[in-house]
């Protein structure tokens, strides 16, 4: 990868990371089964998925870009899938509530006034506990989380590969490898907090009305990632 | 609350107190490593500045949680400090100014995006994002400098195995003071005193890391641990007296048990 291509890859990776946060269902009040989504803040959950992706991608760093991207994406998706599965088990057998989308049940999701799950077709309304905004992760939310993690894992792996490409000519391979991993992790954390500002701590994923705010995230992450990419480029290429 | 009526430090005041000694501390460890134990004292204000920036922003209700803003701030500062490690040593004279300025710019740009594009209604967002990112860059640069000894050929690039620890330790020292003090009656005095406690704990930890990292850093590690431990004792006493004062005032805000 050419240095200039790596520069644009860092920006693209950062933007993908930002977008992924909108797709991963998360809600702090989910811890009390009072809202749909995994029981944590969106940014922290996305960061966790991203780290899993980076860890996996780093194992295949010598296998070329496509393998690195695939490795990062699948590891992130696997992490989110397992988290959703564990969350649903805890909800069903621990709290005693079935997975149900609060927004869909109230006819306020992106799919319109339908109260049915967009993928399974199951009606959500009868399963909502009174006084809550849903609980657990129903099929459509699970699907959205997988897509989000796939996007985020790809973005993180892209940043890792791009930074590694820039560092390999100027550092020892072990140092380049580790430093690029941490820089990719840093870019991930920087970009996944910005979207969380638009989500205000809760999202049901791509069927949530907040998905309409994605363009704001896209622009913000593009600007911030461009500045970060420029600093990395200056340090690795210009001041050498 | 008598403590609330006391004048608070502004973010700019604390940042200035952090910036000047912080740069002096980094230059001290870069150019004359034996003075590291003295430089450690000069880096503590950077922790206070970072913790105050977290407090300042998180008080408005971010929607992401105090932990997230701490992770974000350190992500900017530490990432830029790590990026600077692969700059050609011939351009060493630009450090630490390049890192601190870059962190300020990235922090301010993120704040501008949050304020103008995402439309967050937090008036201090731009200023405190920049201060938070820059304070963490100062801390990360110092810790990296502390773990190196150029006369013994231990360079900053060799310290890459400590990056995760630098990242997590700095993050916790920055985000926890406000997170640990928040709730009714939270005030800047108590939060900053807790921040000083955690600053001394963090530098003590890195003194231990220096001991384990290289034989060339043995005396640096020992002396940093002693200075940090002394600071820890002083700060814990000050913080605990503030906790006792505030708790005393709070004990009589409710009904005594006998009146129930």
TrEMBL record, chain A:
<dbReference type="Pfam" id="PF04207">
    <property type="entry name" value="MtrD"/>
</dbReference>
<feature type="transmembrane region" description="Helical">
    <location>
        <begin position="65"/>
        <end position="85"/>
    </location>
</feature>
<keyword id="KW-1278">Translocase</keyword>
<comment type="subunit">
    <text>The complex is composed of 8 subunits; MtrA, MtrB, MtrC, MtrD, MtrE, MtrF, MtrG and MtrH.</text>
</comment>
<dbReference type="GO" id="GO:0005737">
    <property type="term" value="C:cytoplasm"/>
</dbReference>
<dbReference type="InterPro" id="IPR005779">
    <property type="entry name" value="MeTrfase_D"/>
</dbReference>
<comment type="similarity">
    <text>Belongs to the MtrD family.</text>
</comment>
<keyword id="KW-0484">Methanogenesis</keyword>
<comment type="pathway">
    <text>One-carbon metabolism; methanogenesis from CO(2); methyl-coenzyme M from 5,10-methylene-5,6,7,8-tetrahydromethanopterin: step 2/2.</text>
</comment>
<protein>
    <recommendedName>
        <fullName>Tetrahydromethanopterin S-methyltransferase subunit D</fullName>
        <ecNumber>7.2.1.4</ecNumber>
    </recommendedName>
</protein>
<keyword id="KW-0472">Membrane</keyword>
<feature type="transmembrane region" description="Helical">
    <location>
        <begin position="177"/>
        <end position="197"/>
    </location>
</feature>
<feature type="transmembrane region" description="Helical">
    <location>
        <begin position="6"/>
        <end position="26"/>
    </location>
</feature>
<keyword id="KW-0489">Methyltransferase</keyword>
<keyword id="KW-0812">Transmembrane</keyword>
<feature type="transmembrane region" description="Helical">
    <location>
        <begin position="146"/>
        <end position="171"/>
    </location>
</feature>
<keyword id="KW-1133">Transmembrane helix</keyword>
<dbReference type="GO" id="GO:0005886">
    <property type="term" value="C:plasma membrane"/>
</dbReference>
<dbReference type="GO" id="GO:0030269">
    <property type="term" value="F:tetrahydromethanopterin S-methyltransferase activity"/>
</dbReference>
<feature type="transmembrane region" description="Helical">
    <location>
        <begin position="38"/>
        <end position="59"/>
    </location>
</feature>
<dbReference type="GO" id="GO:0032259">
    <property type="term" value="P:methylation"/>
</dbReference>
<keyword id="KW-0808">Transferase</keyword>
Automatic annotation (TrEMBL), chain B:
<keyword id="KW-0812">Transmembrane</keyword>
<comment type="function">
    <text>Part of a complex that catalyzes the formation of methyl-coenzyme M and tetrahydromethanopterin from coenzyme M and methyl-tetrahydromethanopterin. This is an energy-conserving, sodium-ion translocating step.</text>
</comment>
<feature type="transmembrane region" description="Helical">
    <location>
        <begin position="130"/>
        <end position="148"/>
    </location>
</feature>
<feature type="transmembrane region" description="Helical">
    <location>
        <begin position="191"/>
        <end position="211"/>
    </location>
</feature>
<keyword id="KW-1278">Translocase</keyword>
<dbReference type="Pfam" id="PF04211">
    <property type="entry name" value="MtrC"/>
</dbReference>
<dbReference type="GO" id="GO:0030269">
    <property type="term" value="F:tetrahydromethanopterin S-methyltransferase activity"/>
</dbReference>
<feature type="transmembrane region" description="Helical">
    <location>
        <begin position="160"/>
        <end position="179"/>
    </location>
</feature>
<dbReference type="InterPro" id="IPR005865">
    <property type="entry name" value="THM_MeTrfase_su_C"/>
</dbReference>
<feature type="transmembrane region" description="Helical">
    <location>
        <begin position="69"/>
        <end position="88"/>
    </location>
</feature>
<keyword id="KW-0472">Membrane</keyword>
<dbReference type="GO" id="GO:0032259">
    <property type="term" value="P:methylation"/>
</dbReference>
<comment type="subunit">
    <text>The complex is composed of 8 subunits; MtrA, MtrB, MtrC, MtrD, MtrE, MtrF, MtrG and MtrH.</text>
</comment>
<feature type="transmembrane region" description="Helical">
    <location>
        <begin position="38"/>
        <end position="57"/>
    </location>
</feature>
<dbReference type="GO" id="GO:0006730">
    <property type="term" value="P:one-carbon metabolic process"/>
</dbReference>
<dbReference type="GO" id="GO:0005886">
    <property type="term" value="C:plasma membrane"/>
</dbReference>
<comment type="pathway">
    <text>One-carbon metabolism; methanogenesis from CO(2); methyl-coenzyme M from 5,10-methylene-5,6,7,8-tetrahydromethanopterin: step 2/2.</text>
</comment>
<comment type="similarity">
    <text>Belongs to the MtrC family.</text>
</comment>
<keyword id="KW-1003">Cell membrane</keyword>
<feature type="transmembrane region" description="Helical">
    <location>
        <begin position="217"/>
        <end position="236"/>
    </location>
</feature>
<feature type="transmembrane region" description="Helical">
    <location>
        <begin position="14"/>
        <end position="32"/>
    </location>
</feature>
<keyword id="KW-0554">One-carbon metabolism</keyword>
